[in-house]
Specification:
Strand content: under 5%
Distance between the termini: 25 Å
Number of strands: 0
Oligomer: single chain
Low-confidence stretches: none
Helix content: over 70%
Largest sheet: none
Shape: globular
Number of helices: 13
Structural class: mainly alpha
């Protein structure tokens, strides 16, 4: 039901039932979901331990999709622990499993996630390799939404590398090339950030107020708005407004 839970009382029944079973698929799934529950609760070491148990059981099956989910999710846990090399390696293994079950969509999205991690510490060609892999899959599937996302990630890399003109050009070209894509909050936030980084604070505020804010719904989005406005007004030299929004951000985080 898409409800994140942190209590293991129900899934533990399944784990206890299947841990001595020869049904490695259900055993692996039970350990995987127990791992997810520990992850939701921030208990990462326990999440990793159960993820390894899940991988071991699923390795005795030919369900490559479940194997990929386990590997990729453990990579996400490592990201939370800032263990980026370990996360990248697990996601690369997940790609192999997705390819074995011909899941091209998930293969492409995992390439995108790897590209995002690589930009933190690796050269541009490593990032572009995975972006181009995802783009080729998008073209093969004729999936404009995926193709737009590739260009969004590309623009995000250019922003990170401080190549702001390339970032803006990439986003504008993607909007023209893939008109079926309906811009979302992440798209507008990236544009805001690029304008902020280039010193165009009024443009950053315009996109933030008129495009990003109406699409923002989660607590995290609302916190982002307050913090970002604080940064923009600080750059504009309006320290009173900057302090007001920073105060909002701090208090939102305490809710």
């Amino acid at each position: 039901n898409f409800i994140d839970i942190t209590n293991d009382s129900l899934i533990s029944i399944a784990v206890d039932y299947y841990k001595h079973s020869h049904n490695n698929l259900y055993k692996g799934m039970a350990y995987f979901y127990l791992s997810r529950i520990y992850e939701n609760g921030g208990r990462y070491e326990e999440a990793i331990a159960n993820s390894v148990q899940a991988e071991e059981a699923l390795s005795r099956t030919d369900d490559y999709y479940m194997q990929a989910l386990v590997l990729e999710n453990r990579g996400d846990i490592y990201v939370e622990q800032y263990k980026f090399d370990e996360a990248i390696e697990l996601k690369r293994q997940a790609i192999i499993c997705y390819e074995k079950c011909n899941n091209k969509r998930n293969t492409a999205y995992t390439h995108l996630r790897i590209s995002s991690l690589l930009k933190l510490q690796y050269p541009a060609d490593s990032v572009m390799y995975h972006l181009d892999k995802a783009r080729r899959i998008g073209l093969e599937l004729n999936n404009e939404e995926l193709l737009y996302m590739v260009e969004n990630y590309r623009a995000s890399y250019y922003d990170y590398a401080k190549e702001y003109d390339k970032a803006i050009t990439t986003l504008r070209n993607a909007a023209k090339q893939y008109p079926s894509h309906k811009p979302n909050a992440d798209d507008y936030y990236l544009m805001c950030r690029i304008y902020h980084n280039t010193g165009m604070q009024d443009s950053a505020l315009y996109y933030l107020d008129n495009f990003y804010t109406p699409l923002a719904h989660t607590q995290s989005d609302i916190e982002t708005i307050s913090f970002f406005k604080s940064e923009i007004y600080k750059a504009k030299g309006d320290y009173e407004k900057a302090h007001t929004h920073l105060f909002e951000y701090v208090n939102l985080g305490l809710l």
